[in-house]
Amino acid sequence: MPVIAIDQVQFDAQVRSRYSDVIGSKLGGKVISCSDEFFAEASNLLAPKPPIRDKGRYTYNGAWYDGWETRRHNPEPADWVIIKLGVASARIIGCEIDTAFFDGNQAPEIDVEGAFVPEDGVPDANTKWSVIIDKTSCGPSQRQFFVRTDGLTEDFYNYVRLNMYPDGGIARFRLYGTPVPVFPTALSTVIDLAHVSSGGVAIACSDEHFGTIDNLLVPGRGIDMGDGWETTRSRYPGHEDWVIVRLGARGIIEKVVVDTAFFRGNFPDKIRVEAVDASSDADALSSEINWKVIVPDQKAKPDFEHEYRVSDGVLTGVDEPVTYVKLSMIPDGGIKRLRIFARRVL
């Protein structure tokens, strides 16, 4: 499928703020197999942190690289790695290929293919692969951003195959798209509609200096402060930091969880949660939108899961369905996860 290369600013605005990295290790994405990883392991492709360089460090096989690197002189057209998505399945819009520190040994070209394999199965020789990112050139030691010209794929996939022609190295691989949720049949079932696997996406924020907003919606409670959302220290009265989340479906909220796990000296002083029933991201981001407070300003605690329910009298005004939620930190700080438990409304 034809793609275009865009810069990081465009990619952040058009892709990262609207879609999820569906293969990230934070979601449970994992490498299933690869053709070769002689110099550096393919699993490094999915590491959440930026690649690093340790010049002068060598392993038994050669120079150490924080990425995936294969042997020279590949007799086949391409080296490949197969990755299982971290969500049930997804439609794909674009990708990032980072060749950081691979200079002279970077992959000259790549493409990406997708496949859907029935539950409990794995790709094999009979698996039908479809091209989702056309073959495109890669430069040395740089972040490169590619977007499909036709938008999201019509089909959805649970496995992808990254091919590099003919061999070489890639530091990181991010693949963005929209998860295809597997919702319970019964609308009375309460689920986390902000979760990535439900299709939740953090679309905008005031600041993400130390930790990015996509971390708020991933599984688990994380491993340290590095996989949460954290802002700079504010220096003037009245400051508030905020993030807006598009829910994976329209729903009536029954419980809100704001988790400050690992944030022990830099948690927010107070927390506020608002909601709105908007039809698009543009509407939700408009200055004309009327947000409804559902959790008024609440004192926050360090390293703690704050739960707000209708029954405790704190969660209020949630008798109507909503599609977006706004979480505010007063005045600043860090939050690990946001959960919005709700009943879907068709």
From TrEMBL:
Protein name: Galactose-binding domain-like protein
